[in-house]
Design a protein that fits this description.
The structure is a homotetramer. By secondary structure, chain A is α+β, with helices and mostly antiparallel strands. Chain A has a single domain, classed as L-fuculose-1-phosphate Aldolase (3-Layer(aba) Sandwich), CATH 3.40.225. Chain A has 5 helices and 10 strands. In chain A, strands 4-3-2-1-5-10-9-8 form an 8-stranded mixed beta sheet, sandwiched between helices. In chain A, strand 8, helix 4 and strand 9 form a beta-alpha-beta unit. Chain A is globular. Chains in contact: A-B, A-C, B-D, C-D. Chains A, B, C, D: Catalyzes the dehydration of methylthioribulose-1-phosphate (MTRu-1-P) into 2,3-diketo-5-methylthiopentyl-1-phosphate (DK-MTP-1-P). Chains A, B, C, D: Its cofactor is Zn(2+). Chains A, B, C, D: GO terms for molecular function: methylthioribulose 1-phosphate dehydratase activity; zinc ion binding. Chains A, B, C, D: This is Methylthioribulose-1-phosphate dehydratase.
């Protein structure tokens, strides 16, 4: 009768098992200032399971047994097939879960959500200078080569213009799902969506890709803020 | 006849015992720049005892045996019942102690005091632009959801305006107690009070809440300073 | 028949062996923000071998077995003698390799490539205020003593003007080789070349020199950006 | 015949022995950005010996056997009595040594030299706005309580004005000794001297005092630069 809560799903000796990897990633993201004050989150899909860090927990102190697990049957399944098959009794699931799932449905293997101040500041600067419908644009910076041009299209070239769509924030995080999905449709090549006054969602086909793309984007946001302060334009067009 | 100094109160194998936890927290706060040069401090209430880090000690090097312990009898007791029942012989108690106690009397389980530069800069900017009686205000930033609206009232909503009162600094830290208590009465929902040109006191019902609320506030102060530099208003009202 | 891939070249108990040292350096560089998102790289020459970190790998997670090794016969050899004698099967060689080799041909023992934002910002400020042909110049800062005046010429003096040439970036990193070599000829005393909108290459006769020179230069770039913001000139001439 | 080089002076099981403590401090100072690129240094006096970190070594990698030791006979001795009684064969003594000794002659037990960018920027701002003879002044910031008012005079009060003299840099570090000693005479209460375009020397009666005073000063320099950017005056007088 043991393990009614599927605890075996979060018990592994493999340091790269999602239940071990998410806590390690979150600790690293904490030191980068991405998940301060329980903000942000991370999710990994592995075969038929999706692992999600819980809500409201100090991200640098997370442990494997704190992970939520959803069933994620393949091949193409009805959305109703998704359900929590493991819940830590004393924790709440992350409000980001539907947003992570939106990325997984587009083939992602890992999705990272940060509250990076550079991301927030970029959304504010874009709004101030280009208005609400505009997306973040930058070109002619080497680091944009660290962001893919789209699924199967390789990485951005140095002279390409990287565009990251920005959606408006909502009072409840789960209500972002619809506009996030819309942005994913309008920008089918993007691997990230900025959320105004909130942060960013970045995904990739595996953990390494999601993490390094998130790093490259954060580098570009920080550089863009510094460039703005020094009155240097983000693209060659000005 | 041993242990006249109640050394047993700071000896525990539990890593989360206050005598072990305060040094670990202080080391983390040091790396965040909150307790540079012996500044700042941390206190935890546990049952009938209050643990306080000593004054004038390098915060990243603290050890359990450096902790002061006060008796804190419950239920409601006369203030005279509070007294040090353990004092490290070679150390001085923190001048913050009466301020920590003011938080504990309002139900806090942990109180953190930082000298964060972002907190100090915010108090200076508020004074310059809104005058001495004004409090810090920010709204429409996701991270304010990490700060509670008041005891039993849940967290701030995205569109709510977070207000943190600011009191004037005094030459002697213990003299802050009266104005801190007055601010607590005027802002009964606040979990923090800024001290102009000095830093901040943040409290919560337990260590995790006090710490994550302190992180969320510090995030907001840093963002507010950066927003000010970029001529972005802190609230939608401007 | 074992070891057809020369795995023995990356197996050593010596912590300072290039195969062990490059991962340790890359981890440190990651924490300095120099190799975010798989950017940047490091190469060490040891006797007849050149060790290079692979492309597209998380720099803080590198392992000895991830290293590429080139044969580098001495004395003076035909360029055709350089070839990979060890390739990790699942990794791609770094596009920086020809650039690292250019430094080794000028006597370097170690070459470091970073995407430091301070380096990038300095290249943008120099272009904006002095145009495309200009190099970065700074004088009268103590830290320039940490940068050599040229091979066999000792370190810069406090009143000397340190000059670092800047070359234009190219869409493909290997295409930088020609202009890098030209800059090395025009500035035969330099130990570094900045790449506009990209980063920097720094070399030295051994690992310690390359690393500390890279640190001193990065310190100077950061200081120069801060000085510019405070309207302080980089040289006494203004 | 063993130990002609007095190696026993740097061999101790006590983690707080100067030969063990200096490497640990230097590693911490490296992570604070104070001793980048082999810059800066630290020295401790213990009884009849003065321990000094060597010149030109990566500060985060120092080891006890890298320490230089000078004889420092007490009571009052002729300056000629000071001499190196232990020299690591492959290293050069620090050019800061005469500057450290100047502090020890005034009763210091530890002296720290950093190249902190905040210190350098403060010296540049003071020169620009107040001219070459001026010293750094700040008041009405809580952290100035972390800096002593003078030997035997306790710490600065909140409303006191903290003054740190600034001397001009010289091409050779040892040539700073005379002006450093002159500043120590003109400001007999100071525990620190800034060096324009170079960094700072901070001392204290023991390691903890020197280190925490250095931290408090660096905090104040950083805050002062940020205040300047936000057009906030350093003292109430403006």
């Amino acid at each position: 009768m043991a393990d009614q809560n599927n605890d075996h799903l979060v018990q592994s000796d493999d340091p790269d098992h999602p239940a071990n990897l998410i806590p390690r990633l979150c600790k690293q993201f904490y030191s980068l200032g991405w998940v301060t004050g329980t903000g942000g989150g991370t999710s990994i899909r592995k075969d038929e399971h999706v692992y999600v860090a819980p809500s409201g927990v100090q991200k640098e102190l997370m442990r494997p047994e704190n992970m939520f697990v959803l069933s994620y049957p393949t091949p193409k399944y009805p959305p109703t097939a998704r359900r929590y098959i493991r819940k830590p009794l004393d924790l709440k699931p992350s409000a980001c879960t539907p947003l992570f799932l939106a990325a997984f449905e587009r083939g992602a293997g890992c999705c990272i959500h940060t509250h990076s101040q550079w991301a927030v500041l970029v959304t504010l600067l874009v709004e101030k200078f280009h208005g609400k419908g505009a997306c973040f644009e930058i070109s002619d910076i080497e680091q944009i080569k660290g962001v893919p041009k789209g699924p199967g299209k390789g990485m951005h070239g140095f002279h390409d213009t990287l565009r990251v769509p920005i959606i408006e924030n909502t009072p409840f995080e789960e209500d972002l799902t619809e506009s996030l999905e819309k942005a994913m449709e309008q920008f089918p090549d993007t691997c990230a969506v900025l959320v105004r006054r909130h942060g960013i969602y970045v995904w990739g086909s595996d953990v390494a890709k999601a993490k390094t793309q998130c790093e490259s984007l954060d580098y570009l946001f920080q550089l863009a803020v510094e460039m703005h302060r020094l009155e240097l334009p983000w693209t060659q067009r000005g």
